[in-house]
Design a protein that fits this description.
Blueprint: H1 5-21, E1 29-34, E2 40-46, H2 53-60, H3 64-72, E3 87-94, E4 96-97, E5 103-104, E6 107-108, E7 111-113, E8 120-124, E9 131-132, E10 139-147, H4 150-163, E11 165-167, H5 173-181, H6 183-187, H7 194-201, E12 223-228, E13 231-236, E14 251-256, E15 259-265, E16 270-275, E17 282-283, E18 288-294, E19 297-302, E20 307-311, E21 319-320, E22 325-329
Antiparallel strand pairs: 1-2, 3-10, 4-5, 6-9, 7-11, 8-10, 12-13, 14-15, 15-22, 16-18, 16-21, 17-20, 18-19, 20-22
């Protein structure tokens, strides 16, 4: 709603002028930022297609990847009839936990079902049973819808998100549902800083944020082996209720008399980049124990309380699994 036809035309003309001035040939993406008064400002030009190129494809009917190859082959292309029609929205489906500062959540996808229907598109890199590794970006799918206008596209996206089912890893699906329902998104009044501020105060609803991610502490199993009539059947338990289910903590405390120790467990599979403490060292609450890399992101693992590092069974370069002990604090 903020970008009217006049502003869209001016941005398009500026993008074309930039490409001509740079003598650029082939598909590219020009990024701008818009202020409250309708002014727009150049950010950057990427000489490639970006994740969001599917939005252009949905409203124009073009296959930008095929066109990019055609240009590279020296073929002439005609875009005179490629006028945008309607509105499209794309949601990136990432293996991240929005309730934990978007902590990466690699793991095995134990359940996967895509939405269907007209004007709904899914670009996905996974199937049920696939492993989302910690070595790459956390995005594993893109969900795109189009409709006659923005409001219809918003409602269609909400339906598609409800039909998209992913088990085994945390995802950004509940976050997308929440954003699409906010007044700011409906009105188009959100800004580049809105989401960060809104998340601080939001009680994010969601369907089982973790989708039974395998990081539950002992005593809360996500999988059971049930014996029935002489047959053993694996059963996976997950919460499908609409109420918010906070993710279990990755560290837990054991109390024995006056002795208290905290076991700090890896919240995700990843590689230890740096170990910042030593055995026997006194540490403060919040002090960083180590840096864990997963999905191209560095994650600081803090101490839950003050104490002394009694165990430190990790080293730089070591690959750790979800739930593996990183340190013990007494």
């Amino acid at each position: 709603p903020v970008v009217d036809e006049g502003l869209r035309t001016r941005i398009g003309e500026a993008a074309i002028a930039l490409a001509k001035a740079a003598d650029y040939v082939n598909a590219g993406t020009v990024e701008c930022i818009v202020d409250d008064d309708g002014g727009f400002y150049f950010l950057e030009m990427n000489t490639r297609l970006q994740v969001e190129h599917t939005v252009t494809e949905m409203v124009t009917g073009l296959d930008l990847v095929a066109l990019q190859i055609a240009v590279a082959l020296g073929e002439r292309i005609d875009l005179s009839s490629a006028q945008p029609r309607g509105h499209a929205i794309q949601c990136r489906i990432n293996a991240e936990d929005p309730t934990r500062n978007f902590l990466p959540g690699p793991g095995r996808v134990t359940g996967y079902r895509e939405p269907s229907g007209p004007f709904v598109r899914v670009d996905s890199a996974i199937r049920e049973g696939d492993e989302i590794p910690p070595d790459y970006d956390s995005m594993f799918a893109k969900l795109i819808v189009s409709a006659e206008d923005r409001e219809r596209a918003r409602r269609r996206m909400l339906r598609a998100l409800d039909e998209l089912h992913v088990e085994g890893v945390p995802t950004t699906i509940p976050l997308h549902r929440w954003i699409l329902r906010t007044r700011e998104f409906r009105e188009g009044s959100h800004t580049t800083t809105w989401l960060e501020r809104a998340l601080r105060d939001a009680e994010l609803p969601g369907v089982d944020w973790t989708a039974a991610a395998p990081s539950e502490p002992p005593g809360v199993p996500a999988e059971l082996l049930v014996e029935l009539d002489g047959r053993r059947v694996p059963v996976r338990i997950f919460d499908r209720r609409r109420s918010r289910a906070p993710r279990p903590p990755s560290r837990h405390e054991a109390h024995g008399g006056e002795h208290v120790h905290s076991v700090i467990a890896a919240p995700m599979q990843g590689t230890i980049l740096r170990v910042l403490v030593e055995p026997g060292q006194e540490i403060r609450a919040g002090e960083v124990i180590c840096i864990l890399e997963a999905m191209k992101m560095e994650n600081a693992i803090p101490a839950p309380r003050e104490g002394v590092v009694s165990e430190l069974p990790i080293r730089a370069g070591q690959v750790v699994a979800v739930g593996q002990t990183l340190a013990v604090i007494d």
